[in-house]
Design brief:
46% helix, mainly alpha, Glutathione-S-Trfase_C_sf, Glutathione_S-Trfase_N, two-stranded antiparallel sheet, Glutathione S-transferase family protein, Glutathione_S-Trfase, globular
Length: 197
C-alpha cells in the first residue's frame, strides 16, 4: 500500500514444510513466516515487518505514528493481531490444511477477539474516528485486516459485527488496496439499467 517494489518468494509451508529446511532456517532460524530481506537486513514477525516498512519506505508518513500516543496504540494493536486475533488464522488454517487442534478454545479466543474489535470500533466511530490507532489508517489496521476480512472462512459472520464490517469496507476503499484471495474489492454500482444501488 506504500508503493514499494518487492520480489515475492514463495515458501511451501504445507505440505512441503520448506520453512523448516536448512535454506530457510539460514534466513530465519525460528522457521517462521513471513520474513523480509532488505539488503543485508532480515526480519520476521508481521508487526516488526510492517513497522520496518512503514518507517523506512512510507514517504507520506501515513502508516506509522507521528507521536507517542499513536505509536503506543499501534503497538497495542500489532500485539493484538499477533496474539488473540491469531486464533482466527489458526481456525482457518485448521480447516484449510486439516490441522488438528482444540477448536473450542480457538473459537472462544477468536470470538472474544472479534467482540473486542467490534466494541473498540464502535467506540472509535462514536468519537468520530474510523481507524484503530488514530485519525488515519495505520499499520495497525493493515495487521488486523486479513484475519478479520477472512473471518467468515473461520465460521464467523459480520451480522453481529456492524462496526467491524464498516471498517473492512473503509479499508478496501484505501488507495492501493490489493485484492487478495477470499477478499473482494468494494463494488459500487451507481446506475444499472436505470436502477441505482
Amino acid at each position: 500500500m506504500i508503493g514499494q517494489a518487492y520480489e515475492l518468494r514463495r515458501v511451501d509451508v504445507h505440505p512441503g514444510r520448506e520453512h523448516r529446511e536448512p535454506p530457510f532456517l539460514a534466513i530465519n532460524p525460528a522457521g517462521e513466516i513471513p520474513v523480509i530481506e532488505d539488503g543485508d537486513f532480515r526480519i520476521a514477525d508481521q508487526g516488526a515487518i510492517l513497522t520496518y516498512l512503514a518507517c523506512t519506505y512510507d514517504g507520506s508518513g501515513q502508516w506509522c505514528a507521528d507521536d507517542a500516543q499513536t505509536l503506543s496504540r499501534i503497538v497495542y494493536w500489532l500485539s493484538f493481531a499477533s496474539g488473540p486475533l491469531a486464533a482466527l488464522r489458526r481456525l482457518r488454517d485448521r480447516d484449510l490444511f486439516a490441522i488438528p487442534g482444540n477448536d473450542a478454545a480457538l473459537q472462544e479466543t477468536a470470538s472474544q477477539a472479534l467482540l473486542l474489535l467490534e466494541d473498540s470500533l464502535s467506540a472509535i466511530e462514536i468519537a468520530g474516528g474510523g481507524w484503530f490507532a488514530g485519525g488515519k489508517p495505520s499499520i495497525a489496521d493493515v495487521a488486523i485486516f486479513p484475519a478479520v476480512a477472512l473471518c467468515t472462512e473461520a465460521g464467523f459472520t459480520f451480522e453481529t459485527m456492524p462496526a467491524v464490517w464498516r471498517w473492512t469496507e473503509r479499508f478496501k476503499r484505501l488507495p492501493n488496496f490489493s485484492v487478495m484471495p477470499g477478499i473482494l474489492p468494494v463494488l459500487i454500482i451507481t446506475d444499472v439499467g436505470g436502477v441505482q444501488g
